[in-house]
Each structure stands twice: as C-alpha cells, then as structure tokens.
Amino acid sequence: MKAYDLLELSGRNLREAMLRNSLTTLGIGVGVASLVAMLSLGIGLQRLLTKQLGKSSLFDSVFVTSRQDFRPRRPGADATPLTPPKPLDDAARKSFEKLPGVIEVYPSLGSVAEFRLSDGPSSEPQTGVLSGLPPSSRSSEAFDDFQGRYFSGPNAAEAILKTDFARELLGLPEIRDTDVKLTSDQAAKLLGKDLVLRYAERQSQPAPGASGQPPDAAASFNVVRKELKLKIVGIVTSEPVRGIPRTGQTSVFLPVAFAESLNMIQPGDLRTIMRQNEGKTYLALIVHMAKSGSVPAAEDEIKKQGYNAFSILDASRGLAIAFRIVDVFLGIFGSLALAVASLGIVNTLVMAILERRREIGIMKAVGASDGDVKKIFFVEAGSMGLLGGCLGVLMGWLIGRVINWGVNAYFTRQGFASQDIWYVPLWLVAFAIGFSILVSLLAGLYPASRAAKLDPVQALRHE
Amino acid sequence: MALNGTEAVRAESLVRHYKLGQSIIRAVDGVTLSVKKGEFAALLGASGSGKSTLMNLIAGLDHATSGAIVVEGLNLAALKREQLALYRRHTVGMVFQSFNLVPTMTLTENVELPMRFAEVDRGERKTRVQEALRQVGLGERLEHRPSEMSGGEQQRAALARALVNRPKLLLADEPTGNLDSKTGKEIMDLIRDLNRTLGMTVIMVTHERALAERYANRLIFLGDGKLLSESANTPGGAR
Ligand SMILES: Nc1ncnc2c1ncn2[C@@H]1O[C@H](COP(=O)(O)OP(=O)(O)OP(=O)(O)O)[C@@H](O)[C@H]1O
Ligand SMILES: [Mg+2]
C-alpha cells in the first residue's frame, strides 16, 4: 500500500473515534511532558552549575602545595612515584610558569591586617583578611556587576573591598544578606578614598658570616609593623573566586603582584624558618591554565616534580557523574508516565480492533494483506505518538516556564539574581518526540499483529 | 491437478471441517466440481449445507482442511497468506448478502478501497471508479455514506467495488437476500449483463431455485457439505 493511502486510511480511523484518540494522545502528551520536564530540569541545573563554575574559572586552575607542609593522605595510592618533598619556592614557581598552557602562576596570599579610612566616620581600625587577585580575575563573575572600577594595573596601590567589610568600615549595622549592594551615597564615601593598611612585614636577615647565600635565604627574619595608604577603587558583593574557592572571608583585595611586593608575613613563614637553607617559600601557588583541557597534564607534571597538586576539575568529575545519575533517575521517572500512557495506546487500539472487526474483514476480502492491516494500525499508533510527543514537548516547555518563573520570583525576592534552572535543548525536543513515537509503535505492536491475524471469514459472518 | 484451458475453478475432494469442542462439523465434505470460464453457476442448497463455506474457499478467504482448489491456474492451498491477499485483490470480486460496505466511507470511497491495496495510481482511480459506477448504474449521491442509501443502491456500490480491480471471477453470496424482489431482479440483471458483456465467470449462492433457473446456465446442489447433483440449465425468462 502507498504511503499516502496508509496515512489517509489511518487518519480517517483516528478521526472516526476522535474523542477516544484525543484522550489517548493527551495521555501520551502528559507522559512526554513529564519526561521533558524532568530531563530539562536535570539539564538546566547541570548547565547552570557548569556555567557558574566555568565563569569562576575553577576548572582551569591547579592548586599546588608543598609536601613538606601537606602530606598526601595516602601516599601509596598515588600513581606518581613519590619524589623527595621540595620547597615551594621561587624556583618552583618559575618551573610551573614554563609548563605548556600556563597563563600565570601566583601565590595564594591571605594575611590578616588592619584597615582604617584615613578620613571617615570611623577612625577605629578594623581587622580583615587581605588577599591578592591575579589580572585574570577581571573576568570573574564578581566583576559582572560591581561598584567602582577594577585595578588600574598589576602593581597599583589600590584596593577593592567586599561589601560586608565596607559596611564595617562605614560603621553600618551588619546585615545577613551579603549580596545587597551599598547605596550610591554609601559607596561615594568609600570610592576614591584612602584606606590605611597596617600589616606585618617580613624582613629577612642574612645569617651572620654566610654572605654567599642568596639574599632571600634567610636564617631568620624580623617582623616589622608597616603602614601604607591604598586607594579604594571598587566594591564587590561576592568573592572573585580564583583557583580554590575560599569561603568568602576575604575583606580587601589587592593586585596580587602588589600584595606580594609588600612581603607580608605568611602563615608558612614560621615553619620555613625552622628548616635549614631555605629561602622564601609559598604556602600555596595557583597555576592558572589557558584551557581546562590542559589541567590534568599540568597537574600530573607538578605531582611528578614532587608537589601536591589539586584541581577542581578533578574533584568535579565525581560531581558530573552524580549529575548523570540524577539525570537517569529523572529520566526513568519521566518515562514511567510515558509507559503508563502507552498502555492507553494498547487499550485504544485493542478497542478499535473490536469495533472495526467487520471493516478489517472487508479490507481483507477486497485484497488487503496482513501487512497492510498491520501498517494501518502502526501508523495510527505512530501518529498518536507523534502528536502526543509534540503536545508533550509543548506542555513540558510550558510547565518549565512556569516553574522557572516561580523559582525566579522567589530568587528575586531573596535577593539572588534570576537564573534559568530550566533548559530544553533542541536535542531533547527531538529525543522526546522520537522516544514518544518509538514507545507508541511498541505499544501498537500487539494490537497491530492481532488485527492482522483476524480471520476474515469470522469477521464477515453476519450476526 | 492442472486446469484445462476452459476451466475457471476446479475443486477436488475439497474438505473444510470445523472443530467445535469434541464434535467435528463437516461444512464442506469432499466436494469435487469444476466451473468453466464465462459460466454463470448457481450454488443451491438448504441453510447450513455449506454454500458460504465453499464460496469462502474459492474466494481465498479460508483455507481448506484437505483437498485441492485451483482458480485461474492458482492452487490456493499452496499459496502463502501474502499471495492469497494478492489473489483476492486481482482475481476475484465478492458481493455479499449484507453488502459489507465500510460504513464510515462514502460510496465512492468504498469503490476506491480495493485500488488502494492494489496500488493503482490516483489519477487512474478516478476514471476506474467512474467506469465501475456507470457499469452498475449508479450516478447520484455518490458522496453519501452507505447508511443513507437504499439496499439496492448499496448492493450496486458493492458490485462496483467488486468490479473495480477487473477480476476474472465474481463470487456472489445471496446477493439478493436482503432486497425486495424488484430490486433483487435489477441486481440479478446487472450480474447477468456483467457475465455476458465482460465474459466474467460468476458463481452465485442462492436458495431460490427459481432465481437460479432464470439466470444461471449451470446449477450445483449442495447438501450437508456434499455435492448432491450438478446440471446444465438454460437461463429462462430473459427480458
Ligand atoms: N466458524 C465455524 N465454526 C463452526 N461451525 C461453522 C463455522 N462456520 C460455519 N459453520 C457450520 O458449517 C455449516 C455450513 O455453514 P455455511 O455458512 O457454509 O452454510 P450456508 O449453506 O451458507 O447456510 P445459509 O444458507 O444459512 O447461509 C453450518 O452448519 C455452520 O454451522
Ligand atoms: Mg451462507
């Protein structure tokens, strides 16, 4: 039988039992809608997370520490053979910079210091944590929408404040929600103003008599209190995350090169002083790669050189697997509704066989083969699958819109930026409709073969 | 078993048994007969004598329990289901006592139906439908459903549907059984004309002997599934 005859005959049959077939199709639609809703939620959440993480470029950084300071928990489990621990010093930093694909290597600086406004409402000094930001942090999400401007250069004596610390400096009451920006009046009291930084400087002292040693290889050091004026240039609500996310306790950010030049005392300094023949070392270095693809190789190489290396990319692999599993479960729940709906197709078509017994007999008497009859039923099932699939995608999309809207209304009220937690990619549309047709055809299998096997003599017997 | 050139249908020890629980119903019980090409044969017999069963075997709608049946050179017992469908499609046309039109299709659509399975081009279908409807004398209200038409009109449409694929053999199972005598006569005249003008072999079931004697040139009597007698007949009462 030709395709258009098949479509015409099936179409007229579908139209003859309009109500019943519409309800069946609607059932399929609901099943598909639930599948689309479940999957697009899973996809949307995963996409949102990847986008957020990708923006903070967590994925393209390797966090390096010395094995002197942090021993790997299970040395035997590591595939790379353990080389003797090496200090994380300038030589190490230079060797990391030479690795392929590295953009920058910078120390993870974090020092406690005192800050006060040189003229302002509160002359009381405030204690806060200072950290350095590499130039690449400019693209961080924290700078998508912030007050003021970014550092004018890598060595500028400029500071960017976290909002909560800015409030402290202004003597404003603390609020729970750290995402709320300062008013422009409040910001005006800070931006462009001077911030006095008081910190502890480490001044190396060469060992007496050992004049051949490099200047940094100090046998001891002095700690000297220093004061310095910084210019406040910006205020951010969230931490411009680089490398390893800190838990948001930083109060003031400085350009990392400038911060380094201050030679502030670091938590690791006390430990290094106890070891011999060591110069300045870093507690942690962050190796920023051009592409996240080159992270694993760099990580391996650094480990081979005798350091601890850690990357979020590594850690997030488990997360990705977890998301896959969630997707599969959401998919199974979604498919369940479709499976139930497919029973509707079986039911509808079996009913249709009973009703159309005589008609099937007539068709066979005038020359329809078993295959022709089977095809007619298949096309009917497939059409319901196609229509139900399209309807379901539409409904699923609408449900998604509504939920997204609801969630975002809540987000906005809570002070978060609105986000698409819902995402229906084109492949999901194609997959959902294809899957719906497939399930419907499977459901049509039994009715179609039963209709095809109908004995025409029995069917035509006049009762 | 070969047909000689003039034979349209030949049955040899044809048997069709039905099993009903323990008992066996011998609907057709060893029938041997032959019908010549262009003949108008009438199958006569009491109710339950196996006339319809024999017709269904000739039509390729049913499978014989044993014996052979050859129509237009095809041994039906040897054909697969798919081939039997082809045989029904092209070699035989059937009309029934209860018309058996598809109730949801218009008369035109009903007549067109066999050509869908025969994969006739759409353009040609139109002309063939027109031709078949003209042959049976139907020209009006063709886009109505069967339920809106008289019995005579329905049987004419059924006849047109049987003709549309141009079969060699027309099988009619009590075609006038549901019609009044005047309309029945019209249908019978029509069948006779088709038999004469197109040279179509006709086998007709009836239990009205008078009708058979008036139109058929051969009478076959069945009783309890067996062939009772066979005789040539000169059709009488021609208009
Ligand atoms: N599917 C079946 N199962 C059991 N018995 C059947 C079946 N079909 C027909 N029979 C029996 O076979 C016999 C012949 O039936 P058939 O319909 O051929 O008779 P008929 O001569 O056409 O009768 P009528 O003139 O009433 O149409 C009957 O006794 C009938 O009950
Ligand atoms: Mg009968």
Notes on the structure:
The complex is a heterodimer of chains A (463) and B (239). Chain A has 463 residues and is α+β, with helices and mostly antiparallel strands. In chain A, a hairpin with an 8-residue loop joins strand 3 (110-117) and strand 4 (126-133). The longest helix of chain A has 44 residues, at 312-355. In chain A, helix 2 (18-55) runs antiparallel to helix 12 (426-453) and helix 9 (312-355) packs across helix 10 (357-365). Chain A has a six-stranded mixed barrel with strand order 3-4-9-6-8-7. A four-stranded antiparallel sheet of chain A has the order 2-10-1-11. Chain A has helices at residues 3-16, 18-55, 90-97, 163-170, 184-188, 256-261, 269-274, 295-304, 312-355, 357-365, 370-413, 426-453, 456-460; strands at residues 61-66, 102-107, 110-117, 126-133, 147-148, 158-162, 194-205, 220-236, 250-255, 284-289, 307-311. Chain A has three domains: 3-55 and 319-461, no CATH class; 60-103 and 289-310, no CATH class; 109-281, no CATH class. In chain B, the strands form two sheets. Chain B has a six-stranded mixed sheet, with helices on both faces. In chain B, strands 2-1-4-5 form a four-stranded antiparallel sheet, with helices on one face. Chain B is globular and about 50 Å long. In chain B, 34% of the residues lie in helices and 29% in strands. The termini of chain B are far apart. Chain B has helices spanning 51-59, 81-90, 107-117, 122-135, 151-163, 181-197, 209-215; strands at 7-20, 23-36, 40-45, 66-71, 74-75, 92-96, 169-173, 201-205, 218-223, 226-232. Chain B is built from seven helices and ten strands. Chain B is of the alpha/beta class. The interface between A and B is medium-sized, with 24 and 29 residues. Bound molecules: adenosine-5'-triphosphate and magnesium ion.
